[in-house]
């Protein structure tokens, strides 16, 4: 298992793998890996000959009052877990390698980046699309794996790849949850025991919505009220947003039809958590 931190060294390895006819799978992460990340790595390994995992806490996707300084990090553990899951190489660049002094270029996807998380985290998605473009250009993978946990991020990356004619297959992977339903997240480690319990209302509210829809409820405002009231039953949880939108365009809808995304974000203690459920449409993996 190699750990590489420069663009030049990584490019040399990728070039040599490609010259041997090997396919390259790529899993971009911010590290502190959990089973959610590992499911992406395993899938990448099953579908590609050589798997690159990037571990880079990208400062440009954090706002000034966000949790960049307390974002958990543990490269040694990440290396061990990645290797066990089938990764061949970790790309772990410094901030200076990714953003050398004098960098002036950003990548911006309009419209779908302005809703949901984009509304409460201005500049977040520009940070994401810029770093992902750079990573795509450095790794030049055949396939890149993204979790549906970050449903809006996935939609934004898919749009960017389509709009900019990037020759990369984006592979969506389902959310991995703890046994009690909490969506796995590197940030969960920053929850106190009490907050961890309170956070369960997030997945519970989505399950309640799913059940209602399965029983035939089609009205978005009725489903919205249920999700809201389940979350509000826990006073430690502060809702940022609950959105029930078209699963592809992220446009607001009135009725459940086709692929629908129910997405939410909430502050639990000091930690901002997101969760979502995709209903209808084609299941991706
Ligand atoms: P992050 O390290 O949080 O930037 O996440 C890196 C990748 O792992 C992203 O594509 C995420 O959507 C994905 N991911 C994070 N948590 C989960 C999860 N619980 N289930 C599936 N994928 C996940």
Structure description:
Helix content is 38%, strand content 20%. The protein is built from ten helices and nine strands. The strands form two sheets. Strands 1-4-3-2-5-6 form a six-stranded parallel beta sheet, with helices on both faces. It has a three-stranded antiparallel beta sheet with strand order 7-8-9. The longest helix is centred in the middle third of the chain and has 16 residues, at 124-139. The two termini are 27 Å apart. The protein is globular, with a radius of gyration of 19 Å. It is α/β, with parallel strands linked by helices and 285 residues long. It folds into two domains: 2-173, HUPs (Rossmann fold); 186-277, Pantoate-beta-alanine ligase, C-terminal domain (Pantoate--beta-alanine Ligase, Chain: A,domain 2, 2-Layer Sandwich), CATH 3.30.1300. Strand 3 (50-55), helix 3 and strand 4 form a beta-alpha-beta unit. Adenosine monophosphate binds at residues 29-30, 36-37, 39-40, 146-147, 149-150, 173, 175-176, 183-186.
Give the topology:
Layout: E1 2-4, H1 7-19, E2 24-29, H2 35-47, E3 50-55, H3 75-85, E4 89-91, H4 95-98, H5 116-120, H6 124-139, E5 143-147, H7 151-163, E6 169-173, H8 193-198, H9 200-214, H10 220-232, E7 237-246, E8 260-268, E9 271-279
Parallel strand pairs: 1-4, 2-3, 2-5, 3-4, 5-6
Antiparallel strand pairs: 7-8, 8-9
The protein binds adenosine monophosphate.
Summarize the structure.
This protein has ten helices and nine strands.
């Amino acid at each position: 298992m190699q750990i590489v931190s420069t663009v030049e060294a990584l490019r040399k390895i990728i070039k040599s793998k490609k010259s041997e006819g090997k396919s390259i799978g790529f899993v971009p992460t911010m590290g502190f890996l959990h089973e959610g990340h590992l499911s992406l790595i395993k899938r990448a390994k099953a579908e590609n000959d050589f798997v690159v995992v990037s571990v880079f806490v990208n400062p440009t996707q954090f706002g000034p009052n966000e949790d960049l300084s307390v974002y958990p990090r543990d490269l040694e553990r990440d290396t061990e877990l990645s290797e066990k899951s089938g990764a061949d190489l970790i790309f772990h660049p410094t901030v200076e390698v990714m953003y050398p002094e004098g960098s002036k270029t950003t990548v911006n996807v309009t419209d779908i980046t302005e809703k949901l998380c984009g509304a409460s985290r201005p500049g977040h998605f520009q940070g994401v699309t810029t770093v992902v473009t750079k990573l795509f250009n450095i790794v030049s993978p055949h396939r890149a794996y993204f979790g549906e946990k970050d449903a809006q991020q996935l939609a934004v990356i898919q749009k960017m790849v389509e709009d900019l004619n990037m020759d990369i297959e984006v592979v969506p992977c389902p959310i991995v949850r703890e046994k009690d339903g909490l969506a796995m997240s590197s940030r969960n480690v920053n929850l106190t025991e009490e907050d961890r319990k309170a956070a369960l209302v997030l997945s519970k509210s989505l399950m309640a919505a799913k059940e209602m829809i399965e029983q035939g409820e089609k009205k978005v405002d009725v489903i919205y009220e249920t999700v809201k009231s389940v979350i509000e039953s826990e006073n430690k949880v502060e809702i940022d947003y609950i959105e029930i939108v078209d699963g592809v365009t992220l446009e607001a809808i009135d009725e459940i039809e086709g692929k629908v995304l129910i997405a939410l974000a909430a502050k639990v203690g000091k930690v901002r958590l997101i969760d979502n459920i995709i209903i209808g449409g084609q299941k991706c993996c």
